[in-house]
Amino acid sequence: MIGFYDYAVIAVFLAFMVGIGVYFRNVCKNTSDFLRGGGSMSWYLSGASNFMVTFSAWTFVGCAGKIYKTGTLLVMLFAFNAAAYLLIALFFAHRFRRMRVITPIDAVRRRFGKGSEQVYAWYNTIISFIFGGLGLYTLSIFLSPILGLSVNASIWIMGLIITFLAVTGGSWAVAASDFVQALIVMSITIVAAVLVLQMPEVGGLAGFFEKIPSYHFNWSETLSPQIVVCWLIAIFLNQIFSAINLTAGASRFLFVKSDRDARKSALLVAAGFIVGPLFWFIPPMAASFVIPDIATEFPYLPNPEEASYVAICMRVFPAGLTGLLACGIFAATMSSVNTSLNQISGITGRNIYLALIRPQAGDRELLLFARIATVVLGVLMILLGIWFSVVSKLPLFELTLLLAGLISIPLTMPLVLGIFVRKTPQWAAWSTILVGLLAAYLVKYHLPMQTIAGWMGISHPLTQQESGDLQFALMIFLVSGISCVWFLGSRFFAGKIGPQREKEVAEFFQDMETPVLPDSDEHENTDGMQYRMLGILSLAYGFVTLLGVLIPNPPGGRACFAVIGGVAVVIGALLYYNYRRMIRYEK
Q1: Which residues, 6+ apart, have CB-to-CB distance to 212 below 8 Å?
Q2: How many CA atoms lie within 13 A of 396 on its CB side?
Q3: Helix (H, G, I), strand (E, B) or coil at 421
Q4: What does 205-254 look like in DSSP terms, one character per residue?
Q5: Rounded distance, CA 139 to CA 154, Å?
Q6: What number of other Cβ atoms are within 10 A of residue 355's Cβ?
Q7: Cα dihedral angle (449, 451, 453, 458), rounded to 10 degrees?
Q8: H-type helices in 347-427, by residue range?
Q9: Is the dihedral angle over the CA atoms 473, 474, 480, 485 positive or is it negative?
Q10: How confident is the model at residue 488 (pLDDT cuts 50, 70, 90)?
């Protein structure tokens, strides 16, 4: 449980987040502004937002639980994320920006036609909705032991705040909050790692490596080597497919103003996934030997190891800092759920309402519809999060990966292959989804894991973890493989494409080869506005955080607030200085 100062920090932070929505309420003048920032964001804003979208409270709950049990095996997950974004920076980020669309489903229509647009609009909405609800549920597991609230109460409170931010300021408010939240998450997790290493039970970096259980490095102690290899290959493929596709992957680069900004945005995300895990892994790994009986501390959680990060941090944090940690983790989840809400409202507005119900709707009507849809979907997402809290028995790590393999991979494969294979019939995409879903169902419910393990040379009965990891690997291998065969096989029927559809596809790929320049008339010049607004927000957050030095803590505790607030103040000052310099130059 936390004290008065922690609650005060959380209250100030939540008010700050609400204020961001109010601050940006007049920036969105049309649907392009509301859904993708008018395609005029700079690389540092887009990159920070992209980085925050790629992880959430799941990193500090489900992933922390997996680290607590298996150790450094999860390093590879983040290493593969970094590799995927390096690949995007080199070959794909600029091409995604060049698609010149407002929503990612617009790209599906241009590439595969109106039929596939509707399939992906509905399917993508459902998937984003599911993962948004899962994000709220994950966040509640993290916050409920800190705040002393029930899981359902946490879901309602956080869900309503997230919905308010998304509906008032649109993509600009979401991206700006992501930028500030990136400062929170990176600074608080670095401080957390340092404080945990200073614990007497840990004994610094040398003691940390000395006391870590051997299976944290020797993965074969708890998992069969064959399963480890299969799982690593599957994780690599999953991260690549998730990053390089025409919807989820491409959507992160529709915001930026140019090819160059798209590449730099991807590089910033890759750097985050190289640096961040070096600090994120320390608390849950230390908890594995500092709190080996964690189940006795959290008997009400179905998977108590998922509280390992917060449990060990609460032992070392000074007054107020646990509240700031809660803010950081809330910030991480707010980013992914906000983005899901923003994308869903855009898809339902442009690709369902406009395409099927009101083709004559003007931009003002679409903007109003997007805001109303955000509110309705936000409430429904909250209810879904509560449903997850009632029915979910799986650990969050396994649950997230299972959903990815079961429903995301069938959706993603045509969008990956469609970037490289041009000549396909109109039904190639949606038919591949159906085939992939059937394959996923068969893997999930009809493949005998123990028998397959025997074929791999594993003679002992599979543990629950081994069975889940093997099932996930087979899901990725078989679903992606079968989907590839079906999609590529459809090329034999590509001759039936009509001339109009063939022309649309050719124009789509031609656009992907046509650069978008920084001074292009395809977007407004908003550099000054971004420098000013982000500078002011960062300075405000930094100075408010610096007030934490007044909390009656030992010198080390006060220093923590000074470091975290100081980082935000320095970055905010640099941004605002650039704004003032730009104003002087224009004069």
Answers
A1: 71, 285, 288, 289
A2: 33
A3: coil
A4: HHHHHHHS-GGGT-GGGTS-HHHHHHHHHHHHHHHHHHHSSTTTTGGGGS
A5: 8
A6: 16
A7: 140
A8: 363-391, 396-403, 409-420
A9: positive
A10: very high
> Which of 61, 116, 70, 32 lies closest to 355, judged by CA?
116
Instruction: Dump pLDDT digits (tens) for 364-403.
Output: 788 788 778 888 888 888 888 888 777 665 565 556 666 6
Phi, psi dihedrals of residue 41, rounded to the nearest 5°: -80, 150
Place of tokens 């690549």: 240
Distance CA 311, CA 269 (A): 28
The pTM (predicted TM-score) of the whole model is: 0.82
Structure tokens at 86: 């390096």
What is the Cα 181 distance to its own chain's centre? 13
Helices (H), 61-150: 62-70, 75-91, 93-97, 104-112, 114-147
Q: Are 12 and 544 in contact (CB under 8 A)?
A: yes
Q: What is the pLDDT of residues 136-178, one digit of tens each?
A: 887 777 677 667 777 788 888 878 887 877 777 666 777 777 7
Are the CB atoms for 117 and 355 separated by under 8 Å? yes
Region 311-340 average pLDDT: 79
- DSSP code per residue over 50-71: HHHHT--HHHHTHHHHHHHHHG
Q: What angle do CA 311, 315, 316 make, to 5 degrees?
A: 125
Other C-beta atoms within 10 Å of 145: how many? 21
